[in-house]
């Protein structure tokens, strides 16, 4: 029970962070759902579309109503919306917001067909997706190859 309460506090704090304050897909404010395996926060409408794609693509939970396992918490904590979109929207024009009437086809294109995704599988350490990658911009080239 104490762990569940701690997880709930962590999730509530995460959705208050600027990058997680809006739905990862439609950009509406105050997402209350998450895809824990994709590591992103969703509004209720987009969460329904994620559910309809199947759990082999997106595993959806409520940030308010569901109990989260340690594995699920670890995934959402290392990703977040910014890193998720750095991967899934790598080849999409920055700032793109899909029109309301196209949101389902946008989400399916984004995750099912990987239309704008970065090449290769999602990284096991998503911090490599942060601006400039894992190595600081000033790092000597030799550090990049160790």
UniProtKB/TrEMBL annotation:
> What sequence ranges are listed for the domain Arf-GAP?
5-128
GO function term, MF aspect, one: zinc ion binding
Cross-referenced CDD domains: ArfGap_SMAP
Q: Which InterPro entries match?
A: ARF_GTPase-activating, ARFGAP/RecO, ArfGAP_dom, ArfGAP_dom_sf, ArfGAP_SMAP1-like
Q: Does the keyword Metal-binding apply?
A: yes
Keyword Hydrolase recorded: no
State the residue spans of region: Disordered. Answer: 117-146
Keywords, comma-separated and alphabetical: GTPase activation, Metal-binding, Zinc, Zinc-finger
Any one of the GO CC terms: cytoplasm
Query: Which SMART domains does the record match to this protein?
Result: ArfGap
What PROSITE patterns does its record include? ARFGAP
Identification of the protein by name? Arf GTPase activating protein
Q: Which organism is it from?
A: Ceraceosorus guamensis
């Amino acid at each position: 029970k104490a762990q569940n309460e701690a997880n709930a506090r962590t999730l509530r704090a995460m959705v208050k962070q600027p990058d997680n304050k809006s739905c990862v897909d439609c950009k509406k404010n105050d997402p209350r759902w998450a895809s824990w395996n994709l590591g992103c926060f969703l509004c209720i409408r987009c969460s329904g579309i994620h559910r309809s794609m199947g759990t082999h693509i997106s595993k959806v939970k409520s940030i308010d109503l569901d109990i989260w396992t340690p594995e699920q918490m670890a995934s959402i904590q290392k990703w977040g919306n910014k890193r998720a979109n750095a991967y899934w929207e790598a080849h999409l024009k920055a700032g793109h917001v899909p029109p309301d009437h196209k949101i389902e086809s946008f989400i399916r294109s984004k995750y099912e067909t990987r239309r704008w995704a970065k090449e290769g599988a999602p990284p096991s350490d998503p911090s490599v997706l942060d601006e400039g990658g894992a190595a600081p911009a000033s790092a000597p080239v030799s550090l990049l190859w160790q």
